[in-house]
Design brief:
Length: 230
């Protein structure tokens, strides 16, 4: 898996703090921009986070490039509606010559399971290539491709949605591949906007575990992990 932060709002924390300041001040935008000291940014951000005035976080956007993940994961990813996605097409990009797949660790460490998986991937790839050679369009041949098919996607989310996304997808209850991806995304945005994402992570980082009877029972370790994530 390769997750990169391709672009983001320049000075995201300053932009969000300015938007927050504007809401509570009679001054002009030029004045606010001029007078917004670096030292004020942290206190404004802390204030809006504690007040739940989260709409101002929507002014900061982050665009990620994500490669080497399965269709299992992108299918979960695109369920997040407050985001923009561009995914490699299986209509226009043929897998005839090269076919890559993602093998879960539970399968990779078990030689018998690994063989079953590899042989099925090989069979599917050969069948796909045969269909393409017969003149079947890629948009139809792809019907036999598995969830394990490797894909790539570019995704843009604003900071408010990212906090929600991390709460759900960094949680131990989330599926391992999307959780690993979320952890990588969080690492990247924390470097750019450490104040906004200081409390980011699964729901238990900022309060009690929201999972109730499904709690992983590792709240202390999980909180520690996300506090130190860099
Ligand atoms: C552990 C786990 C297991 C899951 N299992 C399943 C499963 O078995 N089957 C399944 O189908 N899905 C499953 N999902 C996906 C889940 O149901 C959501 O579709 C996905 O997590 C997107 O989250 P969301 O809807 O909160 O937020 P987003 O789409 O990211 O939206 C963010 C927030 O915006 C608001 N919002 C967005 N759109 C609307 C709207 N139309 N109306 C009102 N408010 C809106 C909501 O407050 C929402 O929380 C699972 C997710 C997780 C984390």
């Amino acid at each position: 898996m390769n997750v990169t932060l391709i672009e983001h709002t320049p000075n995201p924390e300053r932009t969000v703090a300015l938007a927050a300041r504007l809401c509570y001040s009679p001054a002009s935008i030029d004045d606010l921009r001029e007078k917004l000291a670096v030292s004020d940014i942290e206190s404004f951000l802390d204030k809006i986070m504690s007040l739940g005035h989260h709409s101002v976080l929507e002014h900061a956007s982050f665009t990620f490039g994500i490669e080497g993940i399965s269709r299992v994961t992108t299918h979960q990813l695109v369920r997040h509606r407050i985001a923009s996605f561009s995914q490699q097409s299986q209509r226009y990009v043929s897998h005839k010559e090269e076919f890559a797949s993602i093998m879960p660790d539970t399968i990779a460490v078990n030689s018998e399971a690994q063989q079953i998986f590899a042989s099925m991937i090989d069979t599917v790839h050969k069948a796909y290539a045969q269909l393409i050679e017969m003149g079947i369009p890629a948009e139809d041949a792809r019907y036999i491709l598995p969830n394990a098919t490797e894909t790539k996607i570019i995704m843009t989310m604003n900071a408010r949605e990212l906090l929600h996304f991390f709460a759900l997808r960094c949680c131990q209850r989330a599926q391992w591949e999307i959780r690993n991806m979320s952890d990588e995304m969080l690492r990247l945005v924390k470097r750019i906007a450490p104040i906004i994402f200081r409390q980011a992570g699964p729901g238990c980082v900022g309060g009690p575990c929201p999972e109730g009877k499904f709690c992983c029972g590792q709240t202390v370790e999980v909180r520690d992990f996300y506090k130190n994530l860099q």
